[in-house]
Amino acid sequence: MSQAVVDTAEVGRGATRSRPWRILFAAAWGQHRTKVGVAITLALVLIALIGPFVTPYPPDQGVENQLPFAKPSADAWLGTDTIGRDVLSRFLAGGLSVLILAGLSTAIGVSLGVAVGLVAAYSRGKLDDLLMRGMDVILSFPQIVFALVLAATVGPALWLLVLAVALTTTPRAARVARGAAVEIVERDFVRAAEAIGLPRRRILFSEVLPNITSPLVVETTLRLTFNIAVVAGLSFLGFGLQPPAADWGLMINENKNGLTIQPWPVVMPIIAIGLLTIGTSLIGDGLNRAAIGIERGRRGSE
Amino acid sequence: MNAAAALEVVELRIELDDGDHEDIVDEVSFRVAAGEILGLVGESGSGKTTVGLAVLGHTRRGARIRRGEVRIEGRDILALTALERQRLRGKLVSYVPQDPASALNPAMRVGKQLEEALTEHGFGASDAERRERIVETLGEVLLPVGDAFLRSYPHQLSGGQQQRVALAMAFANRPRVIVLDEPTTGLDVTTQAHVLETVRDLCGAHGVAAVYVSHDLAVVATLADRVAVLYGGRLAEVGPTGTLFRAAAHPYTRRLVEAIPELSGEHALVGIPGTAPRPGHRPQGCFFAPRCTYARPDCLSAEPPLAEVSAEHRARCFYWADVILEAAAARPEATPRPEIEVDDALVGVRELNAWYGRRQVLFDIDLVVRPRECLALVGESGSGKTTLARCIGGLHTRYDGELTFKGQPLAAGSQARDAAARREIQYVFQSPYNSLNPRKTIGQIVAQPLRLFFSAAGTEGRRRVSDALERVQLSSTVINRYPHQLSGGERQRVAIARALAAEPQLLVCDEVTSALDVSVQAAIIDVLAELQRELHIGLLFVTHNLALIRTIAQEVAVMSEGRIVERGIVDSVLDDPQADYTRRLLADTPSLEAALAASA
């Protein structure tokens, strides 16, 4: 028994470096809902990203010779808003803020939640209870109410909006992270890492975290979907970008009174926000189904 | 073979139901007479459980019976409708599963479950008659027959008792055929010995034809009248137990026998390199040829038929005559184990008591592991052997008493130990399916201790990873692969390589072979023995299998209920046990030699 025991059939079976998340994305991409979701999301993200650079008029200034709430015309394709600014320009310029605020708050919130969930799952006992019950307290407020309370006490500020939305995202991500990690931390490879004295931080982030990426990816897309709606809602209520800046949420608020005369400045942002959330939730759904499928396949083969 | 076979399986073929129609098993035929026990053996993936279930006309999800007949007393049950077959199960043919805990309904009293097994098949005209049968059957499986027992729930019973209830349910309707799927796997040797005896008595008394599915050849040798060996979904060999184990006509059977650890330890344990072919990955020609030492060119091109060796004995090999001839030649002698050279202690354990919560699991343990020696820690499940190993490995901290390592006191728990102690004591876990991070490549896994202890990275790190893998006989092509792409034996080698990368002085091996097939177990033992010989690493080898220790250990400590009951040189403990417990353990350990000696 001196020669290596790996036979060639074994090498052939696993010659490709199949990273687990790549398998997840490939499986998700195999479903129509994911493709539709990606198409919708991509289209809106492109509008939001490129829009600010291709506005026909400066979005924060009125258009010459146009009255407020003017109907669509050759000069202003979607007409004008409540103080005579070009609707198309404001629509093109107003997506980026929603996207950035929602993305940023989701990223911060999920990261924070993952950290809390991992520490809770790994430490068990009192710290676990303390952290998760703390999360439950935040969770007991409706997301938008919590953000409103914060915003109302400090006043409207963009960093506050991001922080508030992030904080309401945290407990939900923490629950998912803890739920997935609780089973992982009991495995022997975690014991093995402890036995050689790997620092706790590395056990959590380099041993445990890679094993819970699937549920976290799914949860992140779900949270992003919700946060887009919440951010737009808070902007609508006046806690986001302040006039005269262009923002989809703000547009709805500014123009709601003229809805019967000139619907476009309200309808366009509504359609955009609606499509964006549908797109991201389709992606999330596709990922979720893929993750479940992979899990079933893995169980079936063992 | 007489004509009155109670069970006859003819040309059975079972396929994967996924469109490719790869066969799981094919061309499987055998007969079992009333009162006879047929042992169905094979490694994992050989299709033995699939065949066992097919005897009930059942397949697991994703598989279907494609061809063949299963005749019970002349009646082909595969020709019946699913509903008719279901009615026969439990009555004409019954099944005892591997894990009784999951087979019994946890929310139903034992008596009720037994009664249900009877009423389901319309047995008995009255409650009194059924009651009488339940009492009779419970008596037969040596369970108490009182009301208190009948009113208990499964979780209130021990594993052995649960398995006896499952046996009682299977025998209650006096079936003609019974399939037992590794029913003693989770049980202690003593309980196992009793359950096996019960199975044999019941089959004899009621003339039941039994198919005993198992991977444990020593158990099968003790129990079965005839044995069928499955390899790659085909019958490799079938014949009377004594003939098959003494003069195997198929190279695979022969190699399997050589891989079984024996209590006497006279012969070397020899593993079978390579892995058994899975459905869809089977080679052309003879399935065993790629791993066979007898293979000639024609074995690689044509599949051999099941040749008749004698009236009762068949083997699927072109060269069975040569195999029998060579089998008479001596098996390789065991390599002499290195003598213990020094008298000082690598690890010292003094007056150690350990707890799980409030329950004390270790009592006044005194133990010494010498440098370069292998100390075997033997005991049944619940004896505390793993807890002791975990205390030494720094994974269990709820203890008092003194632990020393190289004369220095050893702190409780790896967190409290210095880097040197953490590096020099390495722990290898029982299940390689659990001890390797599924999201890391083999290279990353083995490099982890290197990065931590030696800050070795880059070229130097890669070289040392390759060295460690080579030590456990793995090629460095595995570096970029993930654990799920390796077989169980390969994974356990990786786990050992990870431990070696830390350049330890003590390797704590916790039941490292119990999750593996015998052919793989032999190879792993071989690797460990070589490490001890060549790298002079001390081993603490925890096992429940007494037969393994003569092959690898110099000293042995026998544990029972949290105490060490006997300790000494392996040969003297095994040849002349002093403690009653050791004697009983030795007597109950199923052994191929003893079984063959008894049948001769």
Spell out the blueprint of helices and strands.
The complex is a heterodimer of chains A (302) and B (600).
Chain A: H1 8-13, H2 20-29, H3 32-50, H4 87-93, H5 95-123, H6 125-140, H7 143-154, H8 158-184, H9 188-195, H10 200-208, H11 213-236, H12 248-255, H13 264-301
Chain B: E1 5-16, E2 23-33, E3 37-41, H1 48-54, E4 63-72, E5 75-76, H2 82-88, E6 93-96, H3 100-103, H4 110-119, H5 127-140, H6 147-150, H7 159-171, E7 177-181, H8 189-206, E8 209-214, H9 217-223, E9 226-231, E10 234-240, H10 241-246, H11 251-259, H12 297-301, E11 307-310, E12 313-315, H13 320-327, E13 347-356, E14 359-369, E15 374-379, H14 385-393, E16 399-405, E17 408-409, H15 419-424, E18 425-428, H16 442-454, H17 458-471, H18 488-501, E19 506-510, H19 518-535, E20 538-543, H20 546-552, E21 555-560, E22 563-569, H21 570-575, H22 580-588, H23 592-599
Helix pairs in contact in B: 4-7, 5-7, 7-8, 9-23, 16-17, 16-18, 17-18, 18-19
Observed structural traits:
A: 302 residues, 13 helices, elongated, B: 600 residues, alpha/beta, six-stranded mixed sheet, 23% strand
Explain what you see.
The complex is a heterodimer of chains A (302) and B (600). Chain A has 302 residues and is mainly alpha-helical. In chain A, 71% of the residues lie in helices and 0% in strands. In chain A, helix 5 packs parallel to helix 8 and helix 8 runs antiparallel to helix 11. Chain A is elongated and about 75 Å long. In chain A, 45% of the residues are buried. Chain B is an alpha/beta fold. Chain B has an 8-stranded mixed beta sheet, sandwiched between helices. Chain B has a 6-stranded mixed beta sheet with strand order 18-19-20-15-21-22, with helices on both faces. In chain B, strand 13 and strand 14 form a beta hairpin. Chain B is globular and about 75 Å long. Chains A and B meet through helix 1 and helix 9 of A and helix 15, helix 16 and helix 18 of B.
